[in-house]
Design a protein that fits this description.
alpha+beta; 8-stranded parallel beta barrel; 38 strands; 10-stranded antiparallel beta sheet; binds alpha-D-galactopyranose
């Protein structure tokens, strides 16, 4: 039992393997937050509502409960709490946006509550959910807060339903599923910002007084801020100290806020925010929020990452159907838009010869798509490029013994397309305003179920009956001028949210319709690298930036919230660099951080490089299980320490794969000590690469790696316990 409701003490206690979360019900009506931290003996917590001036209070409770400073399980707009709010509701009959719900009851459910139309974590036989019902007597709305407990991963998720049981419509004007009041204000925040080609750049800074937010108003979780973020003790390291991690199982616009207040607490909020979201609830209607997740560890930042990795692997990723990942050869950086069926067939044959498993035909195969100005929306093979249709081409490719994958970008439309001629109203635009383009394309109105149905029918016609093993689902622009002619004026605030539901509907359909095809998602590289997408895709294209220097930073940042198994890593060719043995080796070592792939014109590669690639693939197969299923320990930050080093370890510590990646030369040739805390004392390990023997103590004290005076230097150690 992970959840206990004590009627005697008016407390609710949630326990995971290593953490504990406690709330109390103050005065029988205010759910107050009491504790979130380690689980075990000696844990102490108490209710505190410091006396504070200039804060409204309830006459009957006096100074015992100040809405403005009490640690709350959920926070409401405009009723005595001046901090950032989780829920703002407008009563459409009076126009008032003062929001307040009071506790009514709590119960424990086996499993979880489903979130209609949205991705959410899968429950297993141990999953339990706390349901806390609250009511607003004025509007008649009922709020149910859910806490679903994934005890084995030390993860608790948060989501809610709001049902309008009143007589008048209400509008949700701010929606944050996660609200956590931490009883301290001396914390660091770790977040991941960036831009196209520079996703998930790690930043750590002290949380200064005020409100710090990360967000996307782009209709996609975005390159600019990833929804995953952390808070930690300023002294916390990878393996020591208090750390919290937060994320959303959602891929659209979002807002997360960290706010410190006058009495020494920090409020954490995460959800849909209010910029791209409002939602009208007519009497009788229910709104269900997306899911947010949180994890805590007193064993450092790295442990929170590993909790998130385990959670993603066990509860988010589609059932490990594709545990053995294909090593792909992708056509994008080889041919760009110049897809030619004969060349592609030879490309596939060459891929097979070096031991690759699959070729992926990227952009440029459909409609009139000869460049990025036309064709999106016309999802049929370009008749000039496939003389005998797609089916016969795929058969030819497969004769070489490789699998076949194909690129699609379902959510987009070029004004220069057949689809736009037929349905200009399907492109998202604001009434009376010029349509803005980005990469010459507009966004399809996925909030319109007719559009989603059209895409299903279209894909059925083009792909039904073909032997496709893999789809790469791309999304290459963000949503502006968000508006849908299919919704009335008072529901326009719902478009961005309904858009995501449309995307998920199509993704779900694609998974179900082609159960043997794996899906890799992508958004101009890693612009939609989130748990929502991971629910429907096996892996995500990490970034359009395939330069190893940038890749180490991007991959380092990505590992904080997401397991290596989601991080598609390709070796690319930059100006014939793969013909240089040292560079090819370095590119490959950098790519060994997730499912491996290649992305260049193999028909132009020399035999020496091809032989090296064959060896790489064989080696990758040896380590694949450890990379995709092992536990990750980060040792060096490539942006700070001059090298990126990390190791994967299996559950029983008998196999360890240590990587050291140094992008730039180091004239000082310093000695790096790479400490492997998971090595067992008393055990002996053999490095199967270098041939040396080490004791567990040696590894715990640290393997010494001298940095190289030249850049592009990689070392790898594979320790196996004797
Ligand atoms: C995006 C993707 C690339 C490639 C191109 C094709 O940029 O991230 O990998 O598929 O689109 O247009």
């Amino acid at each position: 039992m992970s959840i206990k409701i004590s009627r005697k003490t008016n407390e609710i206690i949630i326990k995971t393997a290593n953490t504990m979360y406690v709330m109390g019900i103050k005065f029988g009506k205010f759910p107050v937050h009491l504790y979130y931290g380690r689980n075990g003996r000696g844990v102490k917590y108490e209710y505190k509502s410091p006396v504070t001036s200039f804060s409204p209070y309830f006459e009957e409770h006096g100074y015992d409960y100040f809405p403005d400073v009490a640690a709350s399980e959920f926070s409401f707009f405009g009723y005595g709490d001046f901090r950032a709010d989780a829920l703002r509701l407008r009563d459409m009959s009076t126009g008032s946006d003062t929001t307040m719900f009071y506790y009514k009851k709590a119960r424990v459910l086996k499993g979880r509550v489903d979130i209609p139309g949205l991705p959410c974590a899968e429950a297993d036989e141990n999953t339990e959910t706390l349901e806390l019902t609250m009511v607003d007597e004025v509007t008649g709305c009922e709020l149910k807060l859910y806490y679903t407990v994934f005890a084995d991963c030390d993860v608790i998720s948060r989501y809610f339903t709001l049902t309008n049981r009143g007589k008048n419509p209400v509008k949700i004007e701010k929606c944050m599923m996660l609200c956590l009041d931490i009883d301290k204000d001396d914390l660091d925040m770790i977040s991941f910002h960036g831009s196209h080609c520079f996703e998930r750049m790690y930043t750590r800074e002290h949380v200064a007084p005020g409100n710090r937010s990360i967000f996307s108003r782009r209709g996609a979780s975005s390159h600019q801020f990833n929804p995953f973020f952390m808070l930690c003790d300023p002294k916390a390291t990878e393996e020591r100290g208090d750390a919290y991690g937060f994320n959303l199982v959602y891929s659209g616009s979002f807002l997360s806020e960290v706010e410190t207040e006058q009495c020494g607490k920090t409020r954490v909020l995460s959800g849909l925010g209010s910029d791209n979201f409002s939602y009208l609830l007519e009497p009788g209607e229910t709104f269900t929020s997306p899911e947010a997740v949180m994890s805590y560890s007193n064993r450092g930042i790295g442990q929170v990452s590993r909790n998130m990795h385990k959670f993603t692997r066990n509860h988010i990723l589609p059932n490990d159907r594709f545990e053995k990942r294909p090593v792909v050869l992708n056509s994008w950086e080889a041919f760009w838009f110049d897809i030619d069926e004969d060349v592609m067939t030879r490309f596939a044959a060459e891929a097979a010869k070096v031991g690759m498993d699959m070729v992926v035909m990227d952009d440029g195969w459909f409609g009139g798509r000869i460049d990025d100005r036309r064709g999106l929306g016309d999802w049929w093979p370009n008749p000039d490029r496939f003389k005998n249709g797609l089916g016969s081409f795929i058969d030819n490719v497969k004769k070489s013994g490789v699998k076949f994958g194909i690129w699609i970008e379902p959510e987009m439309i070029n004004p220069d397309s057949q689809l736009f001629k037929e349905h200009p109203e399907w492109a998202i635009s604001a009434p009376g305003r010029e349509l803005l383009l980005s990469r010459s394309q507009a966004v399809l109105d996925m909030a319109n179920p007719e559009v989603v149905q059209y895409l299903k029918d279209r894909f059925e016609e083009t792909f039904g009956g073909l032997s496709i093993d893999y789809f790469k689902w791309d999304m290459n622009r963000h949503l502006s001028e968000v508006y849908s002619p299919t919704l009335p004026p008072e529901r326009q605030g719902e478009v961005s949210f309904r858009y995501m539901k449309g995307v998920y509907d199509l993704l779900r359909w694609l998974n179900e319709r082609f159960p043997n095809a794996m899906i890799e998602t992508c958004s101009g590289g890693g612009g939609r690298y989130d748990l929502g997408m991971m629910k429907y895709s096996t892996q995500i294209w990490t970034s359009d930036n395939t330069y190893p220097v940038a890749r180490t930073a991007i991959q380092y940042g990505s590992t904080f919230g997401y397991p290596a198994t989601t991080m598609s890593c390709h070796v690319a060719n930059h100006g014939d660099s793969v013909e240089n043995a040292r560079q090819l080796e370095y590119y490959y070592r950098v790519a060994l951080n997730g499912p491996l792939g290649y992305e260049f014109d193999i028909l132009k590669i020399g035999d020496t490089a091809k032989a090296a690639i064959s060896k790489q693939i064989a080696e990758y197969r040896e380590y694949e299980e450890l990379i995709l299923r092992g536990e990750l320990y980060r040792l060096q930050n490539p942006m700070k320490d001059g090298a990126y080093s990390y190791y994967f370890v299996n559950e029983d510590n008998s196999e360890i794969l240590l990587s050291y990646l140094q992008a730039f030369g180091d004239k000082k040739e310093k000695t790096n000590k790479l400490k492997i805390s998971r090595a067992e004392t008393g055990a002996t390990y053999i490095d199967t690469i270098g041939g040396n023997t080490y004791t567990g103590e040696d590894l715990r004290r640290g393997i010494e790696v001298k940095s190289d005076k030249d850049g592009g230097y990689a070392r790898m150690f594979h320790f196996v316990k004797e």
